[in-house]
């Protein structure tokens, strides 16, 4: 089975061909980071325009690299939710036209389900059920992966996502967009015990997250230092921030997996590239006796191989779309 995946939910235009669910034949990613950097974050209209300019070339290259033509494909998978609406619409419209002209099935893929699927590409033997922590720029979810296509959200963020917290604190420290990776680098030479940052408590669901208090604490700390004219060691602050975020994510994920009786824990989403999150969750899993899975680093950020992989499982489960498929900016994993 050969599936073409298309991803355009944020600032990466990507296309990939995946064979038999888990083998990547090609993966092309055209990133717009350099352009959005000037503005300190993604400018939605610019993102849509760049997707429109890039998508044909990216898809052509993905087919060429895989040495396949449209007629060889068994389906065309596309991210239809969630994300920036104008950005998603480019991928969805393109995939619909391609499906119509080739007569191939059109397969809708939820972006978060795509991130979860990165672990199938990394671990050929991983099978549901398991618990997955998905942390990205827009989402922080603890999810029960009940099957390849059925999900239950156990915990979600009430406000900022973990990636957003990394990025906003990074910006306040003067790092360029997207800041998460710069915090990670700076943290390598910092002291994680230098600053005591708050671990927020969340009333109600014990597995929900809240990162806005932590973000505000870091921003206030920087402002206070500026007003007093004192220097803040950014390596130490980065290490303390990374340590705190990794602790919060790890603690809730382990407790959720224990309380629901899971044996396997997976990590996914852009923040799964973070060295602190990777090592903290991995060590906690070893300590508590869980099998642990995390994607190889090149699959952590947005890509289309994950969309093609999840699209393959959707097709096997009979999940396809007709010509009325639309992009949706906000859509829970449970409503797919
Ligand atoms: O999944 P993703 O590529 O896009 C969304 O779906 O949102 O996630 C992007 C997020 C950004 O917030 C980025 O700063 C964060 O992942 N990120 C990291 C690292 N690499 C990417 N955060 C911390 N440390 C990293 N090494
Ligand atoms: Zn993503």
Topology:
Blueprint: E1 2-7, E2 12-19, E3 23-31, H1 33-37, H2 44-66, E4 75-81, H3 85-102, E5 106-110, H4 111-122, E6 130-135, E7 140-145, E8 151-156, H5 162-172, H6 180-187, H7 212-228, H8 234-260, E9 264-268, H9 275-288, E10 291-293, H10 305-316
Parallel strand pairs: 1-4, 4-5, 6-9, 9-10
Antiparallel strand pairs: 1-2, 2-3, 6-7, 7-8
This protein binds 5'-O-[(R)-(carboxyoxy)(hydroxy)phosphoryl]adenosine and zinc ion (ZN).
The site of 5'-O-[(R)-(carboxyoxy)(hydroxy)phosphoryl]adenosine has 19 residues, from helix 5 and helix 6.
* Helix content bin: 40-55%
Mean pLDDT: 97
- What's the SSE pattern? EEEHHEHEHEEEHHHHEHEH
What are the bound molecules?
Answer: 5'-O-[(R)-(carboxyoxy)(hydroxy)phosphoryl]adenosine, zinc ion
Count the beta strands.
10
Number of helices: 10
Oligomer: single chain
Spatial ordering of strands, largest sheet = 3-2-1-4-5
Low-pLDDT ranges? none
Distance from first to last alpha carbon: 23 Å
Beta-strand level of the residues, as a percent range?
15-25%
Helix/sheet category: alpha/beta
Q: What coarse outline follows from CA principal-axis ratios?
A: globular
For the biggest sheet, the summary is: 5 strands, mixed
Output the radius of gyration.
20 Å
């Amino acid at each position: 089975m050969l599936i073409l995946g298309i991803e355009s939910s944020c600032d990466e235009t990507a296309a990939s061909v995946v064979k038999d669910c888990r083998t990547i034949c090609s993966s092309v990613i055209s990133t717009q980071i350099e352009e959005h950097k000037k503005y300190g974050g993604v400018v939605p209209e610019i993102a849509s325009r760049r997707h429109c300019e890039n998508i044909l070339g990216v898809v052509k290259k993905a087919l060429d690299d895989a040495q396949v033509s449209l007629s060889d494909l068994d389906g065309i998978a596309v991210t239809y939710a969630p994300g920036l609406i104008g950005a998603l619409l480019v991928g969805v419209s393109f995939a619909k036209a391609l499906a119509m002209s080739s007569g191939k099935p059109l397969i809708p893929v939820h972006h978060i389900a795509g991130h979860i699927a990165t672990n199938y590409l990394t671990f050929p033997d991983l099978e549901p059920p398991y618990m997955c922590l998905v942390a990205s720029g827009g989402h922080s979810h603890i999810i029960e992966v009940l099957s390849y296509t059925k999900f239950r959200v156990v915990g979600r963020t009430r406000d900022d996502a973990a990636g957003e917290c990394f990025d906003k604190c990074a910006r306040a420290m003067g790092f360029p967009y997207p800041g998460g990776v710069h915090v990670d680098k700076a943290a390598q030479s910092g002291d994680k015990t230098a600053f005591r940052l708050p671990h927020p408590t969340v009333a109600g669901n014990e597995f929900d997250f809240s990162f806005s208090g932590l973000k505000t604490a870091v921003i206030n700390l920087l402002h206070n230092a500026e007003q007093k004219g004192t220097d803040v060691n950014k390596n130490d602050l980065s290490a303390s921030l990374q340590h705190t975020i990794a602790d919060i994510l790890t603690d809730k994920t382990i407790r959720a997996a224990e309380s629901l009786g899971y044996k396997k824990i997976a990590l996914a989403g852009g923040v799964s590239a973070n060295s602190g999150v990777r090592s903290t969750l991995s060590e906690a899993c070893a300590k508590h006796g869980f099998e642990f899975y995390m994607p190889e680093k090149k699959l952590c950020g947005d890509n289309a191989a994950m969309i093609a992989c999840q699209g393959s499982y959707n097709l096997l489960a009979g999940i396809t779309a007709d010509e009325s498929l639309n992009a949706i900016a906000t859509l829970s994993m449970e409503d797919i």
